Amino acid sequence: MRTAVLLDEGFEELEAMAPIALLRRGGIDVDMVSPENRTGETGRFGVTLSETIPMEDYDFSQADCLLLPGGPGHVNLEKNEKVREQIRNFYNDENKVLAAICASPTILGRMGLLKGKKYTCFKSMNEDFGGEYQEDYAVTDGNLVTGKSAAAAIDFAFAVMEKLTGKDHTDQVKASIYYDADC
Question: How many Cβ atoms are within 10 Å of 36's Cβ, its own excluded?
Answer without folding.
Answer: 15
